[in-house]
Amino acid sequence: MRCLGRIIAFFLLILVVAILPCSLWSIVLWEIGTEPSTYTDTLDSDVYERIAPLSLPAFADGVANSEDDARELKIILHIIQHMDEEDWERTSAAIVPPQWFEEEMQRNLSGLFTYLHGDTNELTLIMNTQPVRERLEGSGGDLLVEQLMAELNTWEECTSTQRDDFTAFFNEQTEFIPTCQPGPLMSRQIEDGLYAGIDRLLVELPEDGRFDLRRQLLEEDQASAEEYDRTFQEMRRSAVLTDHALPIVIIVPVMLLGLIMLFAVRTGKEFFLWMGLSLIISAFFSIIPLFSWLYSLTQPIQDATSNSDSLSTLGTQAFLEVTRAIAGGLTTPILVVTFMMLAVGFVFLVLSSILNTPQPQQVQQIYYVPSSTTPTPTPIPQAIKGPTGSTASRSEMPAADVSVTPPPMEQQPPKTEASPNAPSGDTQTFMGDMTFAPLEDDDDGDEW
Question: 432: helix, coil or strand?
């Protein structure tokens, strides 16, 4: 029965080792990933400096996809994609300041996660685009066109076929844009197209500076407001349900550990041994995904550096910066919890090795001491017959129990008691309570 309990406990230990690391990662990922402070405190200014240059091309791409004729915006995107990353970062910083972008993103992310956790009933995703609009209308727009044209002039001269492709593109006959310098006449047409593209962006930016992200999503996906509201409400219900159900994730391995204690633990030594092994193995498997994840972050860097598309390179670098920042936020709590589990596990193993295995208890031999008033039965010798009238044979007579030999008893002298009918005077004791009194001479002097 004891062996069966240990076999069951061993399989329960395998379940604990498989479930406890998953529970730990689920709790940490959810708490860190849905906490607004992760993006307000963990993501520093360098991360937003990587993300800010992508905002203007993303906005231009959204407008170009929503409009039927937005060839000017496509030219802007085509030239930006072939610019050097550092050149475009300097150019975009004059239009989209990284500090402004950081403030707006943190405010909207905080509002989004507050809504998902059920702390507020209204979802507000609005960016103040007034600083960007002022820069595009002023010197920022002129600087953008100047930098894009300077990039265009660094390209090789177009062949006759490529010039025909440019002509077909402006005549709305093709969507292909060659990467070459088309010449002075065509370059002037491209410059006018760039100014037209900036005007198109200004039209899409609200004059009051309140850019509604919800409305922009509705325009891009051609969905109704009711569908988007329903989608956000479902996301909110799922998030609230996860917040309430998350403690169950850690209760399951605790219950399994309790079953291990029930089936296998009988002493303090076994308790510390099973608990120590469970904590150490679970902590080891909890650290492995962290190192594998950090190693995988170095892989896209090679693809980003070898890609000729500057927007893709910037997007990959921004993704890596965000992922590393979040990974840094995840690393601290996971390492703290795993090291605590390892420390407690090793302490338990040390205690299990120090404690001695309890010796099995010996059964104490019990002696029966008869009472002094109880007569001790004397076995009848074999040569003497039993009492008269007894028909019990030798085989039927009970044998004396020699398995337990009582210790010798100290014989005490029997107590004597005077007979109640005896007269007063000297008495002599003989065989128990029998008494004899001396005879007195009668009055007449006769002999006795």
Answer: coil
DSSP H stretches of helix in 34-138:
36-37, 45-66, 71-81, 85-93, 98-116, 130-137
CA distances from 48 to 39, 45, 56, 187, 318 (A): 10, 5, 14, 34, 8
Does the pLDDT value for residue 221 go beyond 70? no
Q: Which residues contact 151 (CB under 8 A, 6 or more apart)?
A: 79, 82, 83, 87
pLDDT (0 to 100) of residue 343: 92
Torsion over CA: 56, 58, 61, 65 (sign) = negative
- Tokens at 63, concatenated: 């407008």
Amino acid found at 394: R
Q: Which residue has the higher pLDDT, 445 or 120?
A: 120
> Alpha-carbon distance 193 to 152, whole Å?
13
Report angle CA 118, 119, 124 to the nearest 5 degrees: 90
pTM score, whole prediction = 0.61
Q: Where are the domains of the chain?
A: 1-34+245-356, 45-116+130-205
Report the C-alpha gap between 218 and 275 in whole angstroms. Answer: 54
> Which range is least confidently modeled, 227-236, 257-266, 275-284?
227-236
- In Å, how far from its chain's centre is CA 444? 123
